[in-house]
Every structure is written in C-alpha cells, then in structure tokens.
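Support request, please re-run this one:
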Amino acid sequence: MASENTTAESCLMVIVQFLKILFFIAFVYMLYNLIRYLFRLGKTLNERRQEEEKIAGQRTSRERFRTRNRKETIELDKDQYKVE
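Re-run finished. Output below.
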C-alpha cells in the first residue's frame, strides 16, 4: 500500500510539472504576441502620422492657391445673396 501512494504521488508530480511547463509556454507565447502586437501598432501609427503630415502638406499648398484666388473674389452683403 505504501508503494501505491508513492506511485500515485510521483504520477501526480509528473502531471503537475507538465502543467507548469504548459502554463510557462502559454505565458511566453502570449508575451511574444503582445510584444509583436505593440511593434505592429507602433509601425502602423508611424505610417498613419506620416500620411497625415503628407496630407497636411498638401492642404497648405491648396490653401496657398486659394489665398491667391481670394484676392479676386467679390464680397457680398447679407441681403445680396441669391439662393436657388
């Protein structure tokens, strides 16, 4: 009977060690995915920021064009507008 307890205990210890290894592997995998996600997020945000800066640069060139045309516009009073 004493040998059965030690066999059961050793079997239980092997299962516990195996579960520890599985949890450790799962933790490392989740940590790896988190780090990979953060790097991709940083790359995406950097690309989006560059696109927004490019669009802002295009807006300023359009605004320069509009300011040149604004000199030629005629200003109307409130009662001179015609709405159709």
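The CA atoms of residues 13 and 22 lie 14 Å apart. The mean pLDDT is 82.
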